[in-house]
Amino acid sequence: MAIRRDRQNRILFLSREAYVHKVLQQFGILDYAPVSTPVDTSPLPENGPEYVCPLSLKNKYQRIIGSLMYIMLGTRGDITFAVLAASRHLANPGLQHVKLGQRILRYLKGTRFLSLIYKGPL
Q: Which domain of life is it from (predicted)?
């Protein structure tokens, strides 16, 4: 976590920009175009009852969601709804759920410079 202080104005900036970059690189999202919202407006199709997720897809999805939760809990509360909605499918994710995780990462790519700001009394 990066911490930047503006002592004169009594402002503290907390950022996870370096970690977000590392996660984007890890999951191959650096070349993707950023998006302006973490979730799409259309609902995700559900998996059928007979669907069984391949282990490699499940593992990748769980790693994406785990990384997103770490970012969300530290400094990026703006992705909470999207990450919690995506985390409901950790046991048996489909390709559409992996795409949702990638969309959240694409949102973070476009907003990775956002910081949590604390201000002291003026």
A: Eukaryota
